[in-house]
Amino acid sequence: MAEIVTVEATPDGSADPRLADYTGLTDVELRRRREPAEGLFIAEGEKVIRRAVAAGYEMRSMLLTAKWTHVMADVIDRTAAPVYEVAPDLAERVTGYHVHRGALASMHRKPLPPPADLLRTARRAVVFEDMVDHANLGAAFRNAAALGVDAVLLTPRCADPLYRRSVKVSMGAVLQVPWTRLESWPKDAELLREAGFVTAALCLDDRSITLDELAERRDDRLALLFGTEGDGLTAGALAAADLRVSIPMDAGVDSLNVAATSAVAFYMTRPRG
């Protein structure tokens, strides 16, 4: 069982070094650089912390306000990591925002597996190309977890799915779905082909088949490709794909948000039997 340590504000207003993992959480650029480099990520809220622990992530520490110490008692009992109890105003001063959920945990990242290892047993895979919006990425991961995706592959410029906002929006689903980064895209599309996947690029193209037609194919191993929120997939990704696929739209709407598109596509192409 971890010892609960009450941390008071320092007299000179400087940050207590024991809380270093939690400083400047609203500074996106800082946290995007720092967290992968230091091998950590932040889980925010009771449900996400519990899911991180259940997924086998090792805890570095917890930061709680007093009323959450009892709520998280069972998690505290199972960890040897330090648990820091702080006043709400100190939590806000350290993190840079009002921590209304009252519970944060710093977790160790796991090493990312080689893409070929993820694809070996998968039937449904997805590639997110250069998706930089953390909220969209988190939502797409949640869709993947709920709708039968076995492997998520991220291109080198894609956002960090373990950034706090991604984890929060996904409700911890980024901790459940196997994922890794590709090293060279779109060259690495060949890894999908070698593993026996049909690759289908979601795009707006007159040469596309419809999503209904793709679903009717019932491909045994299928990888769906999604591009950025604004420009969609790059020309290189489209050239590497076996198929181009679109979702027919009504009312003059040309496309859906990428996270919404992924939900529709995952559902329509989920394995049947």
From TrEMBL:
Keyword rRNA-binding appears in the UniProt entry: no
A biological process term (GO) from this entry: methylation
Highest taxon listed in the record's lineage: Bacteria
Domain MRM3-like substrate binding: 31-96
Any one GO molecular function term: methyltransferase activity
Methyltransferase is among the record's keywords: yes
Keywords (A to Z) from UniProt: Methyltransferase, Transferase
Domain tRNA/rRNA methyltransferase SpoU type: 125-267
InterPro entries on file: Alpha/beta_knot_MTases, MRM3-like_sub_bind, Ribosomal_eL30-like_sf, rRNA_Methyltransferase, SpoU_MeTrfase, tRNA_m1G_MTases_N
Name of the protein: rRNA methyltransferase
Organism of this sequence: Streptomyces camponoticapitis
Taxon lineage: Bacteria, Bacillati, Actinomycetota, Actinomycetes, Kitasatosporales
